[in-house]
Design brief:
Elements lengths: L1 E12 L12 E12 L10 H15 L3 E5 L3 H13 L5 E4 L5 H14 L4 E9 L2 E6 H10 L11
Parallel strand pairs: 1-3, 3-4
Antiparallel strand pairs: 1-2, 2-5, 5-6
Length: 156
Amino acid sequence: MIIQKEYKFYAAHRNETLKDKCSNIHGHRYGIRIHFEVERDGDISTLFGDFDSKIEPYLKQNFDHGMLINRNDPLYQSLLDHCERTGENFRLKVLDGPTSVENLAWVMFSEITAMGFRLYRLDIQETDTSTIHYTREDWIKDNRYFANSPAAESTS
């Protein structure tokens, strides 16, 4: 059985590997639709609040009003230097590659799975007209690609 829950968060990012407008820092209002695979246990499978109690804090602490940044982006070190120099702190969600929605989907799928949930699919709407549908099959294939990533350690 599949239970679908929807969430939203705001985050900035840039994709420094592109040679277009997306290499500039910009923000999105991300829409997340998570398809949880659950087993029925008696009258119910899972209380909807069980999802919210873990997913909402996860999004708020790691993503909302933060910045997605590639560990290898030269801007990352500049931001760390700024924080050290000024004492200011930024919410930075560090990825081990470009901050594309495809890579974001892998990170989120991995981290939500590590919370003990079994995901069937994760949809991430980056703009009003663009959504990625990321399945468990995509995640399994990508785990081979990201095998040496620190986030991959939480997927086993």
